[in-house]
Design goal:
By secondary structure, this protein is mostly beta strands. Helix content is 2%, strand content 48%. It is built from one helix and 28 strands. It is rod-shaped and about 120 Å long. Strand 7 and strand 8 form a beta hairpin. The N and C termini lie close together (11 Å).
Length: 321
Amino acid sequence: MTAAVAAGVACTPSDGTNTGDGGTDGDGGSTTPDDGGVASDAAPSLGCPSGCLPPAPEGWRGPSAVYDGAPGEKPAACPSQYGVAELETRQGLAPTPAVCSCGTPTFDTAAPCKTVVEYWSGAACQGFSATSEGSFPFAKCIGPSVGYDSMFVRAPVYENKCTFGTPTKTLPPPVFDKTQMVCGLAAPAACSGRPECTSAPAPDGPFSRMCIYKDGESACPSQDYAVRFVAHRGTTDDRDCTPCGKGTAKGTCGNTITSWTGGDCTGTEVPMTTGTCSEDLRYVDLKGTGAVTSTCEPEPGGNQPTGGLELKDPVTFCCNQ
């Protein structure tokens, strides 16, 4: 079918049933019209000649040339035959949640890694015990208690607090599957010899459809405009982020426990493994137990995207193909 014929002949089967283009509607579904695509009392085809179409019924606008395609390929201007920019609509809204961030955390510098040294009254860490706690970097050497025979050093535990900086919320721009650019005639004129028809020459590509349109959702009023789809003028946006709340610091400590035979961690260095009992009382150096990794985690459910984008202000298009 040539472009001129496409503009002047409605794509309506001889039995009057409706056909569609298999695209997507404003909710991401098919634009192939359902059984309600054409009104039960739709006007019959006027049989306008090539290059002509019926005027828009009362309450509708058009006939107008419509670009119906990828947003990135939308033309910069209307075609020469249809120089009046009338409307832009969109279909197929992709999910684009808010991007949430709690900001750069600040950690308490007081005692993030705590080590417990137990001194036991009997051999093999039996009997009763006394404990000494050391926190990196404030107490670098823990000395043995007098009157005890064995010792046990627990691995360092990360104990810290954190606070969040200024949370941020970034809202990515909407992403659509399709866009419609609608352009109308500057001065509609009747067709020669067919005053009931409007002159509607085939538009230049990529404007591939001739349509009438109306705000809201409606059935098509004419068999000459039997291909229906719904697009939308705009969106509602209630995207947000849940509060970060109080920060919980989590991390790991270095695990290098060095023991020494002399006071204040001097003398001879003696290897020692945390989590084992030692029969030799020694001084413990904590310089290898500083924080290795640390994270600040929001409270459960915090820093999560909420809400979303929704299409609004529907427009019904009824086209000749």
